[in-house]
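Morning!

This is the sequence you dropped in the shared folder:
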Amino acid sequence: KRGAGARQAGRRWISLFAKSLMKFHICAVLLCLVQDGQALRDANEKNGKSSLPDVNETKEASCGTQCSIKKKTQLPSDVQHEVDEENNYAHQPRKRDIPNWSEKYDKDPHGHLHMGSALGMFMIALLLQWTTQPQQRKDAVASAMRKARKPRFLNQAAARADVDAEGSDSEDEATSSSDSHGTPCVMKLGPGMRFLDEDLEEEWEKESYPKNQQRGAVLLALVAFGLAVDRFYAFYELQSCKGDQWWMQKSLQIGCILVMVKVFAFLLMVPADTGTRGEAASFFLPSKFWDSTYWIILGFFGCFFIVVNLWPISPSCDILSVMARVCSYKSVWIANEKLDCTLQGHTACQMIQLWMLIMPYALPQFRCFHLTFLWLGFFYVGVSWLYAEISGEKTHMVDLGLHFSMLVVTAILGTMKKYYLEKGMRRQFLEDNLQRKALEHLYVVFDGMVPKYVIPRMLMQKPICDYRPRVSILFVLIHDFHVSDANAALTFLNTYFGKMDDICAAHKVTKIETVAEEYVCSVGVVPEDLPGDTSAITAERQHQELLERLFGAAYEIQQLQNEAQKKFKMGIHTGEIHAGVIGQKLPRFRLFGDTINTSARMMQKASPGQLLFGEATNRLLPSSLKVKEADGIIVKMKGKGDVKAFYYDETNFPKSSAPAKEPSPDKPKEMVVKAEVNKAIRLSDGERPQSLPFLLSEKVDFKSHDPVKEPKFSEEKFQMWFHLGFARKFRLRLHRQILLMAFMTVMDVMHMEHTEAWKVEDKDPGLLPKHPTKRFVILLSCRAVILAMGLGWSVFARTEAFRERVQEVQWGLVASTLIVATVMFVSYDALIYPQLHRSYVTMHFLDYVNQQQSLIFVLAYFIVTNTHPTLFYQSLVYIPLGVVFMYIRNRTSLYISDIGRVMFLCTVVISCLLAHVLEQTSRARFKTKQRVEETQDRVETVLSNLMPKKVLEEIKLSPGLQRSHSYDHATIAQSDLCGFTQLASDKSPEQVVAFVEDLFGRFDRLTDEFQIYKVETVGDAYIAGMAEHTLTSENSPIQVVQFGMAMIQATAEWAEKLGVKVTCRVGVHHGHCVGGVVGKGMQRYHLFGSFMSELDTLEATSREGITQISRACKDAIVREHLQRLGDAAREATLTDVAALEKLQKEFDGAIERSDDKLTTSKGEEHDYSEVGGRTFLIYKDKASAVSA
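The structure's back. Tokens below.
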């Protein structure tokens, strides 16, 4: 809803517009009254009378300005006689003494040949059309079969461009369960086109109505400009007329020009307010402008197209006969010869033809199409009849039926184009809706994995790296947690991690993740925790409040120890961090920086059952919680030395309860999800350049603004997609065009036989010499050329080359259309007789009908250039062809006035505008289709990696049942990046996230290559592996080790590319572990147990660029090696040396580690017994192992 200010501004615009129109009408009426009064005074002075005229004089003067102009225009007697004769003719109905057609046909010696040729073309066209129908049925059956085979919901999106143009399969108009493209029937087609879902229809109207009004306003602005040019030309003609009796007509032309310029500026030049998606905001129109004003302007144009062709704005037939004698401009004389006056004049008909093509597009919705025919049937016909009765100029009333029929055909063409345009827009809306639904599905998936505030950016696949200057992080570790019974362990973790989730939610603490028996949460990360004031004092005071919430949550978590009968080790640290989302395959919300590392070390150094936090946290605590400096202890941390820390026992926590939640209005989850998805779409739209091009703005995303980056969408793929949609109905459209051309050929030949064209000679120089006997030959030859080209394209359309050669076919079709239009122009030049210098007063009715073929050519040109859809830049070639036709018009038999030429070119421009709308819609649909498919792929990828497929199936079968899985032969690899912390310290947060995203993206691709299940990423650690069937379909320890070596190689290549010193070390372990889904929110499938601790030790004690495997892993590799050889029984008899040789058969760089102790990079020592015995190092080759 608009605000009060917007409504007030809208009323001001309407009032200003209405006042301008009223002033114009008042001035026009006053001018007419003044001139009528002047006419009466002149008549009295001439007769020497000072009193009022008698009844007869009053009757003579009642014709007003027309009589005044006639009286003031002095003409010779013979010329005056011609004018009177023309006026008498104009006031009498034209005679229609039509001779018998068969009698005329029998007189033509070659009549049978002419009609036989035309009928032969018609029969060929019928045969082509008949052969198309069975193919349509086959396509419908194939489409239904394709739909049945496709299981994914993306079948709802039409997978081809909407380029129906004039053609449509019969199935398209059906309201059955699916249309001809396999699209589930959510839309009723035909004259009452609408969505079957009322909510969807309402949403469509809300979104499309203002956009359609914007397009209509642009079109009406161009119409206003054209009408201003038309009135300027009329003023220029009046300037060539002798005498001063034309001042009132000149004033009216100036008034019309001013009104049209004002309307043009009003529609086009008003800057728009910036709006959101679905609002009526664009460069052209302000959102506060609509809705009633648009209909007022539309009605104004509907009236103006009638009024502008009537007296006094345009000359009547009587005045035109006078102007032809006193005006020097040749077009006035020709218009008088052709009786080009009133609403039935040639120019008026051509102008209304243009309006019939414009009006369907100016109407906001297709359902308003009946207004076009109501305007034509009642307003146009009614005013024509009323004007003839009032003015007495009835000669054109006989032509009303002919012109009305042509205008109805034009209106049908325009309405059909509007129908297919709106059908394409509705399909675009459906696909946009599908994109939203896919994004909503993905939102629900992400909602359990990352904080809500990052989801909109994740949906649009934007890099996420947020700097937070002050964050406090809480680590909780369940101490001495051993897994003996898998189900019991899983139940325990779910129970107490679920309670921790509830505690954090109550205290508004953000849960970050759970890793095995560790729980991580924080404050200061989400936007709600950020200080509104950037001043240091205010920020510290607000973070004190956040710390109170975090310590309150920590206090309640510690109260769970007695219930759980387990001790929790807890650590908190405060500092700056970088928050980002890592991984496309299994996205994780991660905190980067020294703060989270220090928090984890605080947890590790804490005594069981106690909370340890650093000096930075203690400094920000409120006085009620702060610990005295003297009570601090010193702990040693790698890289930091002695660090002062503080303990808080559970007895030190205040007896506080969770803060009361602020009441919030009930908002359905669906509404929340939809709002977040719309935010994501707006975020995507905001990524586009600020200044979009005026033409083809949708093409921006098909070009890369960065020479290094690839464009978002492939132009080549779009061209192929558009072409395949174009080719789908090509033969149907082509055959209908051929059938129409053949039918018109039969009608044209019959008309030529009726008018005895074989006797008509061409006395004027024309485009081609047309001897009476050659006129039929030229017309039939031209139509035969069109038929032959159509047959050639019909045959070529059945070949694979037609579908594969995109550019050649598209431009070849444009060239063919140019040839067809040119040949059609020549054929109409042969059809129309040279009557340019012959007055319509002395012309037979059939000859007059022959002259009206010029109007039919305008329609034929529109049909030819719009039968097959073309892209915008290709359609521009039709404009110069139209200019050439209008330039050489004087050398042809066609009659098109000077203003008519402009109208013809406007018709061509409309064709280009339609091509522009088509390409814009097609590109938008292509982008939406690509996004929907990408989003659905991401949903499937995330779901398939969020948990093993077998586990997902179990959850679907039993949603509330907690399951665990015991793996006796799991082989898991864990990697860690060496030197990355130092690299990150010198880089911006965006670069850090980009680095990890790029490198982990390489690791993700390796998991697909080796068929490894990605288990987890923890910081810069990457964990993946294989196990029994529940986890992976295959279980190969050799492939897991190969994957670990591939990670090292990928890291080396990545570091070399960036020129940085970062390496990777990998640990691989084999043995028993337990897997299960843990937690209420952000559910993950975890592996836990002592196995994971041993794996962590193997990775931490490995060497840079080397893979370290446990003894159990070595035995599993040897076992698999022997199984491949079919000699598994020898495993029990192998000595250690022999086992090492078998290991070296698979990995020639394998050696047994000879160090006395396992030492981490932090200097911590571990005994081999902690990882199950001696370990083995896998180098990339034997030479590297020897040199080491």
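Headline: The first helix runs from residue 4 to 46.

More detail when I'm at my desk.
O.
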